[in-house]
Structure formats: C-alpha cells, structure tokens
Amino acid sequence: MTKARMIFGLIAVALIILPFGMPDYYLHLMIMAGISSILALSLGLLVGYLGLVSFCQASFYGIGAYTSALLTTNFNISFWFALPLAGLVASFFGVIIGYPSLKTKGPYFSIMTLGFGQIVSLIFVNWVALTRGSQGMPGIPSPGSLVFPLLGTISFKAKIPYYFLVLLVLAVTFFFMRKFLASHLGRSLTSIRENEILAEAVGIRAMKYKLMAFIISTFFAGLAGSLYAHYFRFISPVSFTVFQSFDTLIKVIFGGAGLLIGPIVGSTLLTIIPEALRMASEYRDTIYAVILLLVILFLPAGITGELKDRFLSRRRSKGKA
Amino acid sequence: MKILDVQGLSKHFHGLAAVDRVDMHVDQGEILAIIGPNGAGKTTLFNCVTNTLPPTRGSVIWKGEDIAGKGPHVAAQKGIIRSFQQTSLFSGLTVAENVLIGGHRRFHSGLWKTMIGAPSAREEEQQNRLAAADILRTYHLEDKRDRTARSLPFGEMRRLQVAICMAGRPELLLLDESAAGLNPEETQRLMDMIRGIQAQGITVCLVDHNMKFVMGLCSRVIVLDAGRKIAEGTPAEIQSNQQVIEVYLGGSQFA
Amino acid sequence: MDIFLQQIVNGLTMGSSYVLIALGLTIIFGIMNVINLAHGSIYMIGAYLTYFLVQRAGLDFFLSIGLAMGASIPFGILIEKLFFKPLRDKSELSVLLVSVGILVLLESLAQLFFGSEARIMRTPYSGVIYHLGEITLTLPRIFLFGTSILLVTGLYLFIQKTRLGKAMRATAQNREAAVIMGVKLDRVYSLTFALGCALAAAAGGLIGAIFVVHPNMGFMPQLKGFVVVILGGMGSIWGAIAGGLILGLTESLGGGYISSQYIDAFAFIILILVLLLKPSGLFGHRL
User: Fold this and answer.
1) What DSSP element (H or E) covers B24?
2) For B67, phi and psi rounded to 5 degrees?
C-alpha cells in the first residue's frame, strides 16, 4: 500500500506546485478540467455504482449555476454561502426529479431523465424574469476575497487562487465519495446494482439508497455549477443542455465509470488533449462521439478500468510464476 | 407460540390463483416444512410472506403486526429473511462483502453519522465486521473470503446463500429449495446446519421436494396443492394422509 | 370554433409525422430490443438528402423522398452491423450509449459538412394552399398526412402478410423460439433496422418540406417519437399510431390554448405521467 501512497503524494505535490509559473491559458485549462471533473464525478456515482445513466446531469449543473448567480447578484449573498446553497438547491430538485425517475428501471430511467432535462432547459430559456433567458446572465461576481493567516488577503479574481478553490472542492468531492462508498451505505448501493431483489430481501430499501445517491450526485453537480458561474461570470442556457449531459457522460465512460478516479481522468484528458492537439473546436463533438463509440465497443471499462484489469492480471501471472 | 400467522392469503396472476386463501402459522422455534407438487404455490407463498410479491388478499401477521403489502425490505428489517430458489448472490462482489451486506439489518447509522465518522458508526462497523468474520468461519467460507461469489463451486454458493441470510441474525429463516442440486453428503451437512440454526433459537420454515430431507428435519409439515392447503400435521400423519398420497401419484417419494 | 378545427387539423398533420418516427422506433425496439437514440439523425439525413435531390438535382419531390428512403436502407444496415451487432447480447445501457455516440457523431458531421444554417426546401408544392371553409391547409402538410397513411399501411401489410414480416413478429415475441424455428436473426435485425431508418428518412424529407432543414432538426422530433412509443406501448404499431396522433393533438391544442412557449413540454409531461402511472403504455407490448 505504501507504493500507492507515494504515488498519491507525488500527484498531490505536483498539483500544488503546478499552477505557479504556468501560462494563463494552461491554468485556464486546469480550472476547466477541475470543474468538469467535479461534474463528471457526480455523474460517475450514478453510472458506476448504481448502473443508472442519467441524461439530465447538466440540468443540476445549471440549477447550481443559476442559483449561485442569483443569490450573489440579486440578494448580495457572499459566494462562500452561495456555493453550498447552490448544492443544496440542486439536490432539492434532485429529489423532485429523482423520486419519480428512480421508480423506473434502466433505459426507462434514462429516457425519463432525458425528458426532465428538456423541461429544465425549456424553463432556463423561457422563464426570462428569473434567468434572463437566452441572453444569459452577465455580471456574476468573483468570490469575495479572503484573509489567510500567513498569506494575507487573497483575491479570487486571479486564476491561481481560483485554481486552488476548484482543487479543494474537487478533493472534498472525491474524498466524500470515497468514504461514502467504503461505508455500509456505499455497500448497500453496490448491492442494489448487483442484485436488487436480494438486497431488498436482506432489508435494504432500494429506493432510499437510490435517492440518497441521487441527492449526493446532484449536490456536487450544483457545486460544480456554482464554480462555473463565478469563474466565467456569465452563464446562459446553452451551457446546460442535454448535449452538455452527453459530454459529461462521455467523459465518465471514457475515463471509466467503475473507479472513482475514472471520471477525473476522463475529464482531464478530454479537456486537455483537444486543446493540446490544437484542434479546432468544430471537430470537438465529432471526436468525442468517435471516442465514445470506440470506448463502448472496445474498451467498455474505460481507460482506468482497462489499466486496472491489465495491472491485476499481470500481478496474477507474476504470482503464478 | 405463533410468531407468524398467515390468514386468508391469496395471490392472483391475471385471474389465476397461484395461492388460494391459505391459512397457516409458524410456531416459535420449530422447523416447519411446506411441501407440494410443482406449481403448488410454495414459492409464491414465500414471496407473499416476505412481500417480494405483494399478496392480492389476506394478512401476514408477524409478532402481532400485519406486514402484508409493505415492501420486501420491511419483512427483512423485522427479522424474516429468506433464500431464493435460484441461488441468489451478489455475484460480482467478494464472499466477505456478500456476508457483510447480508448483515444489513444490524446497521443503524444514518448518512450524517457515517460520513463524519462518529464513534457509534465506527463501533457499529467494527462489530459487524467481526460478526461477519464469525459467520464466514461457521460456514467454512473463511479461506474463500476474497473470491468473487460467482467463482465459487455450486455447493459453496449454496452455503454462502445461507450465510448471507444468517448474517442478518433473522428470527425466522425461510429456505426455498435449499437442498436442490446437492449430493447426499452435502444434504446431510445442510441438515446439520439447519439443526444448528434451530439450536440458536431461530425458527426455520423450509420449502423442499426432498422427502428424506423434510421428514428428517421437521416437526410439522404443511402440504399445498394448486394454491390451497390440503393437509397439515406431523410427518407421520402426512405420510399416511390419503389425499397427500394421491397428489404425489403413488407416494413413491415417501419410500 | 374555427381556431379549434384548425388546431385539430394541425395536430393531426404533426401527429402523423410523430407516427412515422415512432413506428421506426417501435419496431426497432419490439424486434431488436434496442433503444435507438440515433433515430433522429437518420431523420435529419433523410431531410438533407431530399433537400439536395430536390434543390440541386431538380428531381421530383416524391422521387427524392423515395431515393432518400432507399439510400437510408444500406446506411442503416451498415450502422446496425458496425455498432449494434457487436453489442447484441450486452447490456441495454451499452446499446443506449452507443446510439448516443452515433447521434452525436452524425449531427456533428452534418454540422461540419452542411453548416448549421437552416435551409428551406422549395418544391413546386411549397406555396400551394387550400381553404376548406375556415381551415387552411398547405399541400406539404397534406402530403405528410397522406404519405404517412400510405407508409403505415404498407408497413402493416408487410408485417402481417409477408414471410419476412412473420419472421419479424416471431422474433419480437420469442427470440430463442424464432431462431430454433429457422429464422435468421441477422437478416431480421438488419431488415428491421433498415425499415426503421427508411421510415425516419421519409419523415425527415416530408417535414423538411414544411419547416426547415438543419443539423439538429432531428433531436426534438425523435424525443417526441420516444414519448409516443412509450405512450402507445413499446413494440406496438397501433400504439405508435394512436400515440402519435394523441401527442400531435395535445401539442396543437395545448400550444394554442395554454402556452406556445412551453409547447415542447407537453410531450415530456405525458412521458413522465405514463412512466409513472402505466409504463407499459396504452397497448402494452405487442407487435
């Protein structure tokens, strides 16, 4: 286990040193990768551990974004309160949308979320009084400055502090989910995926745990939305459509839905590689689609899943020798 | 003393009665058998008692409370745990995880307590892991604890199924065709296991076809045919019951 | 009163387009057990093909639609063999995901090659308007309704009367038994998918003549197609017909009397209600 801890420590150190001295553009990419990782993780919980494909994750992303934006612009609430509130409001809608949806199974669930996603998109576009509709909402403030003991006043208008903010939220998301999955609650969740009837027969109320997972998932999607809103300081309905949900889904599947780091790997690679290869953005969707198709046909466990399988089988063959 | 009292239970599928106004009860501490030809409705009866399928009519009174129609997890939470005819396991999970999950009804910590690592939650996890290890030992599955459930040989899968049920410390254990597919040696071991379970104070109700198995274990037998209860009594009484013999076509199973 | 009749007429014509889309979806689901989210892209391609044949090659409208349907058949067979066949016994969700991939792929390619601007199909029938009392009917809408009836009848007869149709029905009812009886699964699946694509392409061409042609045009109609399939019952042809007309009428009347902004929401509200109250739909699972 110490080998894994060492690698983990190195990555942590690298992530902390990385932003200093990095050109602004790459820092921007890292921040985007971080935000989309949080969103992907939130979806990964549903896809990987419940086996449910939700097509409306972007709706909760959007609800978090609009909530945070409205609280800070219309009600002058500090970002530092708006952030968790965005998560809570998103998970509130998570219950409303989740409860009926979770009563259905498999593909019917997916179609239901598709329907809900469309309704939410329609509301974002048409409820102009609340969201300003297609024009979008400008003028979202950056998070307020904070005073730290050794560092003095830090302004979050700059990229480096924002990077650390995103990194912190990502870390919280990751470790929360890891702890959740290792607990008896997480085990109950996995058992539902493996054999729902048997799970109920030993006393696990499937609906309760599915809803719990959905609430957790939508909470973090809402957090990601808030971080997005206060970074770009402008949001519009076009960022929260079902295609954004497809995008996130592709990142989860590409990275590997079965492991917690899968969505993070998928998001980071799919944010950075297209830019690194200097791809024009018009080809991006086509490439994402091709990647999704290739992964489903040839690498169903995603990148991290395949690596894990290779690693385990090599270990096994070494043991035999 | 009755711990389970089933009154007027019926289950209809598209107008066909799979279980037809069955009255039966289970006494505390006994080993009761439900027998009957194929399609008699034995498994359906189990399904209705545990609410894996909600009954169409009737009541299922467990320790004074009617639990009919309340959802499959309710029966389990209150102490009735069942096994399934087709070996039902959490196939992709390890043996150890299977047993841990089986003990679910002993976990009471909620989301908040679990996530903040409250001492009571940690204590509970610890206790239940120890209990699970105990169960693995009792059922001779300890050396297989890290293998996935689906990789086990058939006989051990069956044993794991019982282990999962027992992990929850049930008060009433319902075993559906637990002896199916076992050779004589394994069957004998299963019989000893069930006697051991009874010795712990757990009430057992089993459905089975193997007459030697049933007659050797049970103090009382109920016979179902075409969804109706046609006989009830001690093994000796059942073996000499004319209607039962007819239903089984010559009674060769009683040899 | 006149507005009411007009809404009914509009509802029926729009409804017939939903019927066409839903038919393709429902036979693909009923026979292959595949939920094809890429259906809308085939619809879109059918529209573009018709558009180019009419505008650039100057062909007759109906001929163009026929050709578009014809072209979609080998295209559909190719997609089925490349993407759906390898996943045939895998989870339903893998199949769902692969159809998402195909959807995004086709739409993004269409955007790359054709550009995202909306194109208007001009046929000699475009501007023709009839007045029946208070009701206004444009010829393209009449064609949509009429052609739909033709295609639906054609499909129905094919499935009921021909040997291949019988094979399709058998596969839908019991796959294993059908195989044992000698049905060639590969052939049935390819044929089913191809038929579904042809119907989608036809719908695309017919609607393209009424509204506009653009890369994302298929997404919303397809979603509504799914609503119709679920409303009518997965795998049921009568369900697709009834459901399509019901949806068309609901949208038309709802859009006219309740809200035109949220007109798309009616479909999804119906979807959610059906999934919660009677998931098997109006006619259940049947072919």
Assistant:
1) strand B16-27
2) -105, 10
The reported pLDDT for the residue numbered B2 is 86
Taking a C-beta distance cutoff of 8 angstroms, is the pair C128, C138 a contact?
yes
pLDDT tens figures, B53-81: 889 989 999 988 899 888 889 999 999 99
Residue C218, in any domain of the structure = yes
Cα angle, residue C255 at apex, residues C254 and C259 outer, rounded to 5°: 95
Would you place residue A301 in the very low, low, confident or very high pLDDT band (cuts 50, 70, 90)?
Answer: confident
CATH number, residue C150: 1.10.3470
Interface test with B, best of A202, A216, A312, A315 (most B CBs within 10 A): A202
What chain A holds in terms of domains, given with CATH numbers, is 2-320 (1.10.3470)
CB–CB contact A114 C111 (8 Å):
no
pLDDT band at A218 (very low <50, low <70, confident <90, very high): very high
ipTM over 0.85: yes
How many domains, chain C? 1
pLDDT (mean) for A30-36: 95
Q: What is the pTM of this model?
A: 0.89
Does C4 lie at the interface with A, CB-CB under 8 angstroms?
no
Average pLDDT, chain C: 88
Asked whether residue C269 is assigned to any structural domain, the reply reads yes
Kindly state the helix (H) or strand (E) to which residue B62 belongs, with its residue range. strand B57-62
Which tokens belong to A52? 């449910």
Report the distance separating Cα A89 and Cα A223, nearest Å. Answer: 10
pLDDT at C179: 86
State whether residue B144 is helix, strand or coil.
helix
Report whether pLDDT(B252) > 80.
Answer: no
CA C196, CA C6: separation in Å to the nearest integer? 31
For chain A, the first-to-last Cα distance in angstroms comes to 22
Structural domain includes residue C20: yes
What is the extent of the structural domain holding C112? 2-277
Q: How far is B179 from chain A (nearest CA, A)?
A: 19
Q: How far apart are CA A273 and CA C138, in angstroms?
A: 50
Q: Is residue C242 assigned to a domain?
A: yes
Buried b (16+ CB within 10 A) or exposed e, A197-210: ebbbbbbbbbbebb
In terms of Cα–Cα distance, which of C71, C14, C281 is closest to C197?
C71
pLDDT tens track for C141-162: 888 888 999 999 999 899 888 8
Instruction: Answer yes or no: do C271 and A126 touch at CB < 8 A.
Output: no
The B-side interface with A (CB below 8 A) comprises 50, 52, 71-73, 76-77, 81-82, 84, 88-93, 97, 100-105, 107, 109, 111, 114-115, 117, 121, 125, 128, 164-165, 167-168
> CA–CA separation, C233 vs C285, rounded Å?
6
